[in-house]
Specification:
By secondary structure, the chain is of the alpha+beta class. It contains 15 helices and 17 strands. The strands form 4 sheets. Strands 7, 8, 9, 10, 11, 12, 13 and 14 form an 8-stranded mixed β-sheet that branches. A 3-stranded antiparallel β-sheet has the order 1-2-3, with no helix packed on it. Strands 4-6-5 form a 3-stranded antiparallel β-sheet. The N and C termini lie far apart (79 Å).
Length: 544
């Protein structure tokens, strides 16, 4: 006989199912199989079969069930006598061949597969673990659970199954079969969102399949869920994986050749060479490519293949608190001429760069119509958040054609009106928080790459920011409120709306000039020319 617990309870004799009768008989057999070859006390069986109040006739009903089970196990036609139920004080013992119970076979196979993974035999481990998981036919003892018999052992079995799946995915990824397991991995990770090892494996599989954006989105989704539901940040391993994906760390690359499946193959699969690797070394070294033209600072040239990304170990990492400004320049309408769009983006970046420098910030990297700036680099100041918001105001007003130009131009429009193929709008987000700044040694004049909490929150806030408004996080609002007026009310999900600069903020020195107001700040640039505020000031707590 064969006994199946990994699914609805099932007993097979020569491949044919054996009738088991009612829930008391099936529950008694299942509990004895869970503790196969061990003595199970009668009191323990009674508590397992009647989780609530035990009826007065419970002991008699259990004795009847044991008698029927003995008859079933010993008298079925064709029975090989692989199980015997005996009385053994203070209860009963079911003597059974371990190979006849799928639960025991599963445990042995998982231990063997785990040992293969530890030994580096990933191909063998994947085969053993997949066979072990194939023993599952659904939720363990699903029929008894439906009848109200829910035992704590079932939770442990389910955890063992998930651990085995994670071991299997690890082995398959080590064999280079990320494409083959991606669908299964996505389904399991979606069903178990709190298992971070699964999330890491999903991120790695997506990255190896060339879907870097989805890999990073999976990280952000898991992080948001952990923070909002449990108040926890992802583990260090998961954060390290995200940084490696952002840096295209070569250590994440799949094996050079996917491991073949067992048996003769019909097609010999030869992997294509990497874009940065040639099959044969040239006879003479090729001349070094010319440096890309710096038409738009911060944007990489797209006229050829990118060079191989550097390892994270080749960067200097600095952890500090900064204020981050992200600006998205959006053209309205469709059908714009590509050359005019490129000119508009170049001009938009010139405006952003000018205002960032005017308020003592550092221009960050740009990606298409999205520009970034840092305040608090290279030196942190108390007014970083306030200067970041003021720079955001200046950008917005320049694009609206009503802001001042750079210092010395006086009030009014910032020089000539912005040209472009059509109407455009700006979306601006400002976030203050901890971030990791990545520098390449010897390249101190270039903007650092920004990763971490501040970048994550700025990414989400920019996506929600309405057109023409400056939206900030709660930390930025608290840090800049002495200088910046905000729309009052409960904190909105898309960030606080910054309204305008107050007449005089705490810790500033105000001097009147020719139509301008010059304030002494603690930032890297000591003096910044600001527009003179309107006569009517918005009080700190006025309803707008």
């Amino acid at each position: 006989m064969d006994f199946h617990l990994l699914g609805p309870l099932e007993v097979l004799d020569g491949g044919a199912p054996v009738p088991l009768g009612g829930v008391i008989k099936r529950g008694a057999l299942a509990h004895l199989l869970i503790h196969a070859n061990s003595v199970v006390a009668t009191s323990r069986l009674l508590a397992a079969l009647w989780p609530g109040d035990t009826p007065l006739t419970a002991r008699k009903m259990l004795q009847n069930a044991v008698r029927d089970l003995r008859r079933t196990l010993s008298c079925e036609p064709g029975s090989e006598g692989r199980a015997t139920l005996v009385t053994d004080a203070p209860g009963y013992r079911l003597r059974v061949d371990p190979d006849a119970v799928d639960l025991l076979r599963f445990r042995r196979a998982v231990e063997r597969g785990r040992a293969e993974v530890a030994a580096g035999s990933h191909e063998s481990a994947a085969r053993v673990l997949r066979e072990a998981l194939g023993l599952w036919r659904g939720p363990a003892l699903a029929d008894l659970v439906e009848d109200g018999l829910v035992w704590p052992e079932l939770t442990g079995w389910e955890n063992s199954r998930l651990n085995a799946q994670e071991d299997l995915f690890e082995a398959e990824l080590a064999c280079g079969r990320h494409h083959a397991v991606l669908g299964e991995l996505q389904a399991v990770a979606a069903a178990e969102p709190t298992r971070e090892r699964l999330s890491c494996q999903l991120m790695l599989a997506l990255y190896r399949c060339g879907r870097q954006t989805e890999a990073l989105a999976a990280y952000r989704h898991r992080r948001v869920e952990l923070v909002e539901r449990y108040g926890l940040e992802p583990t260090r391993e998961m954060q390290k994986l995200e940084r490696a994906i952002l840096a295209h760390d070569p250590e994440l690359d799949p094996p050079s050749r996917p491991a073949p499946v067992d048996g003769p193959g019909l097609v010999d699969v030869t992997p294509l060479p990497r874009p940065d690797v040639t099959r044969e070394a040239p006879a003479t070294p090729a001349p070094a490519p010319a440096a890309p033209a710096q038409g738009r600072a911060g944007l990489a040239a797209v006229g050829g293949r990118a060079t191989r990304p550097r390892r994270l170990s080749e960067f200097t990492v600095e952890h500090k608190r900064i204020s981050l400004v992200w600006v998205r320049y959006a053209l309205e309408g469709h059908g714009h001429d590509p050359s005019s769009v490129q000119d508009a983006l170049r001009e938009a970046e010139w405006v952003v760069r000018e205002e960032v420098a005017r308020f003592g910030g550092t221009m960050g990297h740009a990606a298409g119509p999205v520009f970034s700036a840092l305040f608090g680099h290279p030196e942190t100041s108390e007014d970083d958040a306030a200067r970041a918001v003021r720079a955001a105001f200046a950008m917005r007003d320049r694009f609206a054609g009503r802001g001042p130009g750079p210092a010395g131009r006086g009030p009014g429009p910032a020089g000539p009106a912005l040209r472009g193929p059509g109407p455009a709008c700006l979306h601006v987000a400002v976030v203050t928080g901890d971030a990791y700044l990545l520098f390449r040694p010897g390249e101190t004049d270039t903007a650092p790459r920004v990763m971490g909490e501040a970048a994550d929150r700025c990414f989400r806030l920019l996506a929600l920011a309405p057109r023409g408004q400056v939206r900030v996080c709660e930390v930025t609002r608290r840090a800049s409120e002495p200088v910046i007026a905000y729309r009052v009310g409960p904190e909105p999900p898309d960030g606080w709306e910054a309204v305008r600069v107050r007449r005089q903020g705490h810790g500033t020195e105000v001097r009147q000039g020719h139509g301008t107001e010059v304030r002494r700040t603690a930032g890297p640039r000591d003096w910044a020319a600001l527009p003179a505020p309107e006569p009517e000031e918005i009080p700190a707590h006025a309803a707008l």
